Each structure stands twice: as structure tokens, then as C-alpha cells.
Amino acid sequence: MTAKVIDGKAFASNVRAQVATHVTRLKEVNGLTPGLAVVLVGEDPASEVYVRNKGKQTVEVGMNSYEHKLPAETSEEDLLALISRLNADPAVHGILVQLPLPGHLDSDLVINSIDPAKDVDGFHISNVGLLGTGQKSMVPCTPLGCLMMLRDHHGSLSGLNAVVVGRSNIVGKPMAQLLLADSCTVTIAHSRTKDLASVCRGADILVAAVGRPEMIPGDWVKPGATVIDVGINRIERDGKKKLVGDVEYGSAAEVAGAITPVPGGVGPMTIACLLANTLTACCRAHG
Ligand code: GUN
């Protein structure tokens, strides 16, 4: 079997087009323009690329983008003061603080100082609790993007065995909550899981979010399974720089029923879902 390739790039482009249509209508009918503030502390090159892409795509769908670039040595007090101003600013509907933050800043404290209604990352403890109890919340962007692609491919996910490899707060844990809410039987596996290979082989849906290049080979994939590869790992092979996922794509694509490629799978969906969350936050703020 050769897997169907789930085209995240095309999917994300569709999501952005739908967001743009809604934004146009909000402007015409309600005179509202959604605004997204992105806060970057320090000069991490990968984070700078993400923030630039976020700003560009925010403007492309017709929203206002507010970028706040702060020096690496910014104090916690100054960062909290900025967030407080953004919380109070009616033109700002979504606030994203790019992670990781420099070591002297307490990420939990900073994230939990964001107004939960503007927390478009879905990382605030209130949103985590709301998601875990099935209440209306902001849903973290990467898992939301994965869920949208899974629903599109399967229709109903009810009763399927889902294995999430990785237990991060950003991807693994919220992904598991979303799959559970869609009535999957969910296993969260991680680096200490015994016989990870056989756990993975039981998965109808296998989500890999560990950040280890090509850790999951094709013979860990159940024939016909859907493989969602969240990993984005920069490696060097044969003297060339390359981007690979957490799954060994070539061998997995021979057995899977469907698979997301890297690049062009989950990656583009993350920013598209961030824009969708910003639109949602704006609509909720204005009833
Ligand atoms: N760093 C890597 N991924 C993310 C994300 O989804 N949100 C934020 N705020 N920072 C990140």
C-alpha cells in the first residue's frame, strides 16, 4: 500500500481563505478588524522566522498585526507590564508570547498573565482546564490543526485507537484531550514507555510529537493507519541540510493509509489555526 499524502499546505491555504472571508465580512458588517499581538523576547533565529511568518500571514488575511520585539535581558516586570497593556487594549483580540522565553523569565507566570479570552495559543491554565473538561476554550494551534486534518480524512474518529507519542503541554497533552473528546481510545506514549514499537503498532491514528528525527520507522506503523507527524527536525545528511519529521517518511508511507509529509504537513496548519483562533477571540469579544 502507498499512503495518501495529507497536503497540509493546501489545507492551511483553505483555512486562511475562509478566515479572510470572515474578516472581510466582520469589517463590512461590524466595522471590526481582528488584531493579533505577538511578543518575542530575545533573538532566537528560529523564533524570529516564525514570528515574521505569523506577522505576514496575519496581514494577508486582513487582520492587524502588532509585533513587540524585546531584548533578551527584558525583566519579568517589564514583560508583565506589556502583557497588561495588551490585555486592556480593545484593538488586540489575540496575544501570543513566543516560546521558549529566556531562562530568567518564568514562562508559566507570563503565560498565565495573559487574559484567557485573548490567549490564542490556548496555553493559559484556564484554557487547559476548560479543554480537559470539554468546555468552550481556546485550543492550542498545532493539535487543532492535526484534529482538523484527521476529521477531514476520517469523518468520524469515534472508537479509533489513537496513540500520541510525546507528552508536551504544547502538543502531546492537548492532542490527547482533543482525540478523547472525539471518542478515540487514547494512549499517551513517551520516552519511558515500555515497548513503544508494539504500542505504536496498535494505533489506527499515530501522532508523533517527540522532536527526535525519524525516530518512528515504518515497521512500527499498523497497515492502513493514519500517521500525523508533528516533528520538524533540522538534520544534515550527505553534506546537505534537510528538514525531517519524527517519522521515517519513506518506510511509513509504504504501510500507512494516510500520512502528513515534513515539510508541508502539520507545519502550515499551525499558523492557519492561530489566525482562526484570533478570529474566534474577536467574535467572542464582540458577542
Ligand atoms: N514555540 C514553538 N511553538 C510555539 C507555539 O505554538 N506557540 C508559542 N507561543 N510559541 C511556540
Distance between the termini: 49 Å
Count of helical segments?
10
The biggest beta sheet reads:
6 strands, parallel
**Secondary structure tally: strands:** 11
Radius of gyration: 19 Å
Note the beta-strand portion: 15-25%
Kindly give the count of domains. Answer: 2
CATH architecture of the largest domain: 3-Layer(aba) Sandwich
| CATH superfamily placement of the largest domain | NAD(P)-binding Rossmann-like Domain
Mean pLDDT: 97
Give the % helix. Answer: 40-55%
Structural class: alpha/beta
- Give the quaternary arrangement of the chains: single chain
Features:
287 residues; 6-stranded parallel beta sheet; binds guanine; methenyltetrahydrofolate cyclohydrolase activity; globular; 11 strands; alpha/beta; single chain; 3-stranded parallel beta sheet; 10 helices; Rossmann fold
